[in-house]
Amino acid sequence: MTSLMTRITSLMALSLCLFLVPKLSFAIEKTSIQQLTKISQERAPSPLIPRSVFIDTPKIQQVTLSPDGKYITYLIDHKKFETLWVLNLDTQERWSLYNAKSIDALYWSTDSQRIFIESENNISSVNSKPGSSPALLVDLSAGDTYFYGVDPTTPQAIFISVENKRNKTHTLYKLKPDLTKTMIYQDKVPLADFIANDGGGLDFIKKVNGDVFEVYHLGKHPNSPQHLFTCRLESQCSLLSYDQAQKALYLSCTLENDLTGLYSYSLETGEYTQIHQDPENRFDLDRVLLNPTTQRPELVRYINDNVSYYGLNKESESLLDSIEKQLPGNLHFVTSNEDFTRLLIIDLSLKKRLPDYYLYDTQTTKVTKLFADFDEKIKDDTRAVPSSVIAQTSAIYYSVSDGMQQQGYLTLPNGIDVSKAPLVLVPHGGPWSRAEGGYHSFVQFLANRGYVVFQPNFRSSTGLGKYYTLSANKDFGDGRVQQDIIDGMQHVLSLGIGDKSKLGIFGHSFGGFSTLGALAFTPELFKVGIAGAPPIDLALAIRLLNERGPNRHGMEPKVRFKLLAVDLDDPKDVQRLSGQSPNAHWQKVQKPLYLLAGAKDRRVSIQNVKDYASRLSAAGKSISLLVDENEGHSFRDKLAREAYFYTLEEALAKHLGGKFQSEISTKLKRYLKQNTVINTHNNH
User: Fold this and answer.
1) Domain match, 166 and 32 both
2) Among 645, 648, 642, which residue's Cα sits nearest to residue 671?
3) How many angstroms separate the CA atoms of 26 and 28, rounded?
4) N or C: which end of the chain has fewer CB within 10 A?
């Protein structure tokens, strides 16, 4: 059967890798910097696109295909609320079922009769037939119950894990819409992952043991599980599925390799066989599409410089070839139905502001565009933005000052002499994530305003191999990682791209941390910095995350952070990281700084951000702080997002000279006045 975590994430990023078959790639051909510059400068200058275009999210979201392939669910975003819809793919009849302020995810029951709705603190279910009403299935707000996805072996059931803090046990249940529960497994630690079987039990489990994961085979002997292997934390070991016919367990891991790979593990021999890795030997594999009938991997996807897919057999190669001929571009497979006769495809071409959805019939090889005939009221007017306005983005490779080769993305504004254009450095968040080459609203917004945008994948970034991530060697703040970020920008400038006298830096979360560091550690370089939700001291931020306790997989956050950033049990190591953080060097900030934060942020202490801003203000620095009392780590409300974009645009225009949409609504003026708690910029 399919791994729980494979199903719960709808084939989410698994970070995998070795090849046995030739590739069939949808990746856009690499463009040299010279070509990119020539194309961008020869294009007509872009008109000023309203901020609202970049702020608005697609009206159609979270499209999912039912297991029987007859229906899709989707959400319509009405700004103030979202509506759940069902579409009959054969009759084109559609009906709404549910309105809610926010819906995080949708899941079909195995029999395609019910839809499970995941929100921030609960799981509800609703019959998929017209006129049905949803009912609460489980409340997650107490923090002792966790949703573990849809049960693939039962017509209508989900898995939940309940922690009993009195006797310190974690019990896995099957829960049905009538609220009946069946106990499946109990242990002193929660399960990190598992694979269920048709008999109602579990075949395989993965659980935490200190700083490693242990994988066991339960099979017909759940009371005496067989230990199969141990996975170190950095090996990215994920269970995918079990092929009963081949007695093969499919998983993704690195083993002793740098890149995470797609492997099979033989229960008969105890040996691993590597199935696929990136032929370029650079990137971790991102997704696996399984055949639901055989449980064998069919397709693998890599987020490399763009996006590439590979077929794992002749039939899959033929399928990719057929789709590529009909839909050239960046295609993201979402899911398949239970007999692999229909595929739901999302097209995220770089030349599109919004995604398109398609249904592919594997028997007829026919592609059908979804939502093509929908009423005008739910079509997105931002789709009218021509592709010629969307700025060109290309991956670039460069060596940093200690010789390590790194990768990032460069976006150039249209119709501008890029050697004279201001440049904005945009470090990504995380830092254990990465910049990707797709459409990014903030990047396109900045390019439309006339800025060169550089997004570096500095060391500690993920998706480029274990070494790439771990080579950061915990050296954040005034250290190696920040030097990577600056080195990458200097490389772009050395290519004759960007005006070195007009440099700005902008980032959110860890990107905000890097922004504060840039103004403190390289104060002569940048004219301005804009930081959203910035941890001012990485050790303090990590301690705050650790205080939230173990995640649902049972691993304490400090175990992971000991490998990646700091040993919270070692005062000297904590002092090392704190001493390198911007908080300890705030006096060195010379250039204007704009801060934005949410008071309900659970990752970054709003009090620490306020204290940092107050110190700069008291010292006469040019500083502003906007705090939204109702927002968290990321701004979700449309007006709050507009204020975020406006602050970014105004700050860069004032200090770097880019284009600026001066019109501002009365509502936004009021919001800015009410939520700006510090502002000394006008004093300078």
Assistant:
1) yes
2) 642
3) 6
4) C
Between CA 445 and CA 74 the distance in angstroms is 27
Asked which of 332, 360, 382 is the last residue of a domain, the reply is 382
pLDDT, the chain, mean: 90
Report the Cα 37 to chain-centroid distance in Å: 29
Other C-beta atoms lying within 10 Å of the C-beta of residue 664: 15
- Please name the residues in contact with 386: beta carbons below 8 A apart, sequence gap of 6 or more: none
Are 482 and 517 contacting, i.e. CB atoms less than 8 angstroms apart? yes
pLDDT band at 464 (very low <50, low <70, confident <90, very high): very high
Residues paired with 505 in a beta bridge: 425, 529
3-class SS shares of the chain: helix, strand, coil, % to 5: 25, 30, 45
Structure tokens at 653: 């225009």
pTM metric for this prediction: 0.92
Kindly state the average pLDDT of the residues 159-188. Answer: 93
Q: How many structural domains comprise the chain? A: 2
The better pLDDT of the pair 96, 24 is held by 96
- Number of alpha carbons in the 13 Å side-chain half-sphere of residue 469: 25
Q: Which ranges constitute the DSSP H helices of 440-550?
A: 441-448, 466-470, 480-494, 510-521, 538-546
Task: Write out pLDDT tens, residues 143-169.
Answer: 889 999 999 989 999 999 999 988 889
Pairing of strands 248-253, 238-243: antiparallel
How far apart CA 255 and CA 15 sit, in angstroms, is 13
Query: Do 405 and 532 reside in the same domain of the chain?
Result: yes
More confident site: 191 or 59: 191
Residues 286 and 413 in one domain: no
The per-residue pLDDT for range 514-551, each reduced to its tens digit, is 999 999 999 999 999 999 999 999 999 999 999 887 77
Do 114 and 127 contact (CB within 8 A), yes or no?
Answer: yes
The C-alpha atoms of residue 333 and residue 301 are separated, in whole angstroms, by 9
The rounded distance, in Å, linking the Cα atoms of 265 and 273 is: 6
- Cα(275)–Cα(470) distance, rounded to whole angstroms? 25
For residue 383, pLDDT over 60 is answered with no
Rounded to whole angstroms, how far apart are CA atoms 152 and 111?
9
Residue 80's pLDDT band, with cuts at 50, 70 and 90, is: confident
Cα gap 546→561, rounded to integer Å = 9
Angle at 238 between CA 235 and CA 241, to 5 degrees: 145
Q: Within 10 Å of residue 18's Cβ, how many Cβ atoms?
A: 18
Q: Which two tokens stand for residue 27?
A: 């990746």
Q: If you average pLDDT over residues 314-334, what whole number do you get?
A: 86
Q: Does the residue 328 lie in any domain?
A: yes
Angle at 347 between CA 344 and CA 348, to 5 degrees: 135
Helix (H) or strand (E) run with residue 453 in it: strand 452-457
